[in-house]
Amino acid sequence: MAFNELFAGEIVTELLRQLNEITRKSCFCKSSAENLIRSVQELLPVIEELKCSGIDRPAFRQSQLNHFSETLRGGLELARTVLDSGRWNVYKNLQLVRKMEKLEKQVERFISGPMQAHFLADVQHMRIQTMERFNRLEERLDSMNAGPGTSGRQVIEVEEDSNLGIFGGIGLELGKNKVKKMLIQRDDLSVVGIWGIGGSGKTTLANEIRRDNQVRSYFNNRILFLTVSQSPDLEQLRANIWGFITGNEAMSTNHNFLPQGKSQFEWGSGPQTLVVLDDVWSLPVIEQLIFKVPTYKTLVVSRCRFPKRVVNEVYEVELLREDESMSLFCHSAFGQKSIPPTGNATLVKQIVNECKGLPLALKVIGASLQYQPEMYWINARKRLSRGEPICESHESKLLDRMAIGVECLKKKVKECFLDLGSFPEDKKIPLDVLVNMWVQIHNIDKEEAFAILMELSDKNLLTLVKDARAGEMFCSYYEICVTQHDVLRDLAIHLSNQGDVNDRKRLLMPRRDTELPREWEKNIDQPFNAQIVSVHTGEMREMDWFRMEFPKAEVLILNFSADEYFLPPFIDNMPKLRALIIINHGTTEATLLNFSVFTILANLQSLWLEKVTVPRLSNATVPLRNLQKLSMVLCKVSNSLDPSVLDLPQIFPRLSELVIDYCDDLIKLPLSICMVNSLQSMSITNCHRLRELPADLGMLKKLQILRLYACPELKMLPPDIGELVGLKYLDISQCVNLKCLPREIGKLTSLEKIDMRDCLQIMSLPTPAVLLNLKSLQRVICDEEAFDQWRVLEKAVPDLHVQVAEKWYSLDWLNG
Q1: Neighbouring residues of 558: CB distance < 8 A, sequence distance ≥ 6
Q2: What is the pLDDT of residues 376-417, one digit of tens each?
Q3: What SS3 class is residue 665?
Q4: 3-class DSSP state for residue 279?
Q5: pTM for this prediction
Q6: Which family, according to UniProt (predicted)?
Q7: φ, ψ (nearest 5 deg) of residue 495
């Protein structure tokens, strides 16, 4: 009997009539009859919808419905038997009660599960049919409109993200093979991830994998592709997934029907199943969409990196190589894989280079330039170099889509992302610079700043270039750098440049230029309300600057490439300036002119100088009363640190952190540094000519961190180091000529960590009796030669852990 025939007849009506009779006449089965009446009445509206849908159902679905019709027919016979049963036949009535209860459960189970699934499947089928009709109608209308009066140009629309990325398999096979191995050859991986920047072709790769014949064969064509999005209907997604795993085409939205926890394993070893979850944005969402079934695997596609306990292994999508980028761009711009003979090859290469291998950018920008004259292309190149959209299509299809990942960030995290547009393209950003800037303007501490950095990294909005020690307690932020794809940087600039130039929170020069932007000069009659000001030029003389007022500026970033640089006079119109960053990207140290402008920086708290010759410091020229952090990297400092004229406590009375890194003319520190009583952290690193430390180093009673990393000419530590009663961290790693640790080191009762890797000349340590005084020591990093000597101490100091250092070398600094 067909399902519609069942409900077109009188079975349901007759069943309800018989059940009503039972409630009046049978005391044994009254409760079950009442429950069945409610269930059947609840069933009637859904039945009516199914009758009216007019859909031809597959055989297996029709079989399910026919089976249920037989259940109801059996229920009708059971109801008649109950009514015919004598009241005094107790044993028979008890048997009938059990049968009625069983029937009740069968009906309830069908209503809460398969029935609603059938209804949803019919709705989905009808929706698809409707969409197909609309598509056919749209095609007919398009063909009707494509008459003689239309333009002869072909319009190339950029596809959705599922088809973005790699054209014709270029660069795709390597990634596809890696993910296939994770899915097919690794039984220990139940959840695999595809991770990459927005627009890098993640969804394209996932679609290629699900279409792959080998993958389809392994999973017996049981592959479900779902788009999760930022605001998913989790219950519906869970229902769809569970229905797919268990063999149903769809599943109820009733959350209580879905198994929880260990009960998921009760399904045992069914057929191999793959579910692809595309566009996943958060950890709580993915945790709810993963079921623990032995033969079930999940492929997660996301811009965000998830922990290994959730996503077992991840493939990071690589950007396109130069030849691949050119092929994809030319396909979008010219309809072929190479530059046509009539094309301007130099101009095309310049524009392709601006895309930095990002598939979405190559497709969008290529399609936007199709059929455009050469002057339009030249203007596009200029706009791209300034981080500006070349047209409305570029803005909506690239920048706006990339912005989706930014708009969902918490407000403070989003602000930190936008700050990244303040730094030059294709340059590594010292993390120390970022952290200091965020601390100064966002009212956060260093720990929160580092957490924000990790969140941006996990969401693929920046790349963390770290050494082996990054993230450890007492690690140095200036040893870690941040990079960012140019399209993401352009996005940060694009979002920051909304509104009137005088009212922007960030006043930025997107690219290096020979002069300040004309837009700034046109608006100098009004104050600029920017909190961050970033300038990127070549050599600047006094006449190259014009007067500007910055009443709210807290951060000034000066990037330049020159041998000589005149500091901007408008610094004296920055009364709230708290952080000043001066970075020379030239080949030699630059001479700074107009250094006297520092005398008015009463609120300056952080100063970063890179690849400059630091002028002579004196109390008369630079009294930075509130400066807390001074960093000099790749600088010439011998003149500025002249002991005969330098009185550091007078110049920097509140200095708490001093960094001197890669300053190869530093031979010894000035004695007056020992009188800077506020100093808490001192890092003298990679100073290859440093020979000695001040004898009175122990006067720095507040010093907690002392880094002397990679100072090969340093041969001894002063005995007075034992007077550093507050010292918690000592780093003497790669001091290859350091002969020994002084006996006085045993006085450092607050010391928690020592890093002495690659100290090859230290053959013996102070006696165990001396080292036993290091009651606070928790971690020692050393070479194998010193390992056994420190291990003796482990038994006596309960929390001590001695670790042999891994060999690790980096030449990243050579790349700037």
Answers
A1: 535, 565, 567, 568, 580, 581, 582, 583
A2: 888 888 888 777 777 776 666 677 767 777 877 889 999 999
A3: coil
A4: strand
A5: 0.64
A6: Belongs to the disease resistance NB-LRR family.
A7: -70, -30
